């Protein structure tokens, strides 16, 4: 803790993983001898840089940029970029740390990293967004590359921003290096299903949990928080599988729609009009704005898909009271440690983000494969690869949990399975 003062979210993420690893290090002392855990907690490299740009009023704006290259034992650093005013080193490090285990769980050759900026895209014009992205890449370009570090999107960074970032990378380097970024548009090196992948993947993971109980999504009431990339495509897949999504949100509030969220309208409001969730409520008769917490809306399954620590122990208690049976994290670390403890006491099955939302990065790895082979796969084929990956992660979490006497504990299974694969690679590569 004293090495990383004030980095609250990073401490939280590290503690959560280390809490699960006791039985592993006892069984395999080689990890301790080679200081694997201490090395894992220290990023290989962290870059912090100035991002100067000029706004529409001709004022010079200064933001702070980050790229934390956490661990490359399994492959090039891989992880998204987040543009949000709350971004600081502690958030980037928590996300980068989580990413190591998540990427390991996918079974694909990718290491862990994360980056971003405290830039707030809200209310900024197209021109401002483009100039900011260009300024950000003007420093970042020297640190990334197909074999080095491959960023993607996250909160505040979607297809539009990846386009401006890729354009600037191409301009500076004079290289059409498709494999340097993922989440690209379909006509310029992107993969079908990447946009949908995190949301779809989270639903596929929850579907596996249901399947193991002989149940399905058909007729289930689901609450999804957020209304960005992950939430939107989680809702789409849930509806395709027969669930009724009764509520979603953004940072200004939430809507309850007992008829089920009208996804076309939600996409129009959020992606085209770039409006707020209240604009959805204004345009839909069956929807009303909710009060208090979105987790007070009764549901069978809850998918937090907005941001870290958005669901606390009070929310968890209300979910339990209302009979919620499964919580699967579409976002990174959206449930507080107290909430997770409460799920366990209440018998709610909990699927942690590093397993349940790994479909996004897994499909990014598929995008890298397509770029490397200059190939392009169909939607159906790519979606099947995603579904297969999520089934694989699900089964691996359960098998590992069983092996370490924690049956049904997806969080322990994910941490241990993700850890052992990286740790074994680190042992093989020597003390570096
Ligand atoms: P988006 O920017 O597309 O959407 C984020 C959504 O969450 C928006 O509805 C936003 O509301 C809401 N939100 C953001 N910050 C807050 C906050 N502080 N309080 C309340 N609501 C908030 O991001 P994504 O959908 O891409 O990411 C959502 C989560 O999923 C993040 O935790 C991310 O790390 C994780 N994730 C994303 C992946 C991806 O492929 N995109 C992959 C794996 C995980 P508003 O618009 O009002 O800000």
UniProtKB/TrEMBL annotation:
It holds the Pfam family ELFV_dehydrog_N. The active site is at residue 114. Substrate binds at residues 78, 99, 102, 153, 364. NAD(+) binds at residues 198, 229. Residues 191-430 form the Glutamate/phenylalanine/leucine/valine/L-tryptophan dehydrogenase C-terminal domain. Keywords: NAD, Nucleotide-binding, Oxidoreductase. One of its GO terms (molecular function) is nucleotide binding. Homohexamer. This is Glutamate dehydrogenase. It comes from Aeromicrobium choanae.
